[in-house]
Write a structure and sequence with these properties.
Length: 288
């Protein structure tokens, strides 16, 4: 266990690719649950998407922080908390954020998280829910809207799928369009990607009406329906298709995350299909 007696012997420094494994051990020690349950290789692929990363060292790495344009993350192993390490890491991440509004997410059942963020000027903004369904019975057959055909993803669909995502998410409050190359690297190079678990719905004219992008472990990464094809039951059909796909594979559950600011109120669909909330995260924000 790290010594509790001396804060000065903790070094905060910029982190590099060589620190990925140490930072991953911190993430595992924080036990953040299924949503954050990344493999080391997934975490390694995630690492370059940060604008900046820092680690706290006292011999071993005991904490790390990361920043994107408007988002910060701070993790400290339980035995090294209450020593000011989180505060120092948070300051580094905030300095690297590009926007006046900064966001941070905390697991609701971690008692110290919300008070820590509130002490540093953050205020509660919304909730994120991890939802899950048990595949202990055969899911119903999907009913597809007239003129819609579903098939598995092909690599040549990638740009069309990215364009569909941008259109479908355009009205979401926190949406930020990213370059195709970044999206493609993050999604298609991920160790959890497999084309057989991504499904696209084509309209009569060959355009993409919707898509559901699933990690092979049974996690729904994205469910999107083009605005022109909404309110026809396509989202429900894609979800049922996903349930049946993973049931056939012997998966025990299907999981996803959604939030309270989702403009389509997608959680209502998920609840109607039998999904339940298994963990709640609080989303905080701070304005400069």
């Amino acid at each position: 266990m790290a010594s509790q007696s001396n804060v000065a012997d903790i070094e905060i420094r910029l982190a590099g690719q060589e620190d990925v494994e140490a930072a991953y051990r911190v993430l595992v020690a924080c036990d953040l649950g299924r949503w954050f349950d990344l493999t080391l290789e997934q975490f390694r692929a995630w690492w370059p998407t940060y604008r900046g990363t820092w680690v706290a060292e006292q011999g071993p790495v005991v904490g790390y922080a990361a920043a994107r344009s408007n988002e910060v993350e701070v993790y400290v192993v339980p035995e090294a908390r209450r020593r000011g390490i989180g505060t120092r890491l948070l300051a580094k991440a905030e300095d690297a954020a590009e926007e006046d509004r900064i966001t941070a997410t905390a697991r609701r059942d971690e008692a110290a998280a919300a008070p820590f963020l509130e002490r540093h000027g953050y205020r509660f903004g919304s909730e994120t829910w991890l939802m899950q369904i048990d595949l202990d019975r055969e899911p119903p057959e999907p009913v597809w809207p007239e003129g819609i055909a579903v098939r598995s993803f092909r690599v040549e669909d990638a740009r069309g799928v990215k364009e569909l995502l941008d259109v479908a998410y355009a009205e979401e409050p926190d949406f930020r369009e990213e370059p195709f190359e970044n999206w493609s690297r993050f999604m298609l190079d991920d160790t959890s990607f497999e084309a057989e678990s991504w499904f696209v719905a084509e309209a009569v004219d060959g355009s993409l009406a919707g898509a559901v992008l699933n990690w092979k472990e049974g996690f729904v990464k994205d469910l999107v329906v083009h605005p022109a094809h909404r309110r026809r039951g396509l989202g429900e059909a894609l979800m049922l298709h996903t349930f049946r796909h993973f049931k056939t594979r012997g998966a025990p559950t299907v999981t996803l995350k959604t939030d309270s600011i989702n403009t389509s109120q997608a959680w209502r669909l998920y609840e109607r299909l039998g999904m339940r909330t298994i963990r709640t995260y609080d989303d905080f924000e701070k304005r400069g």
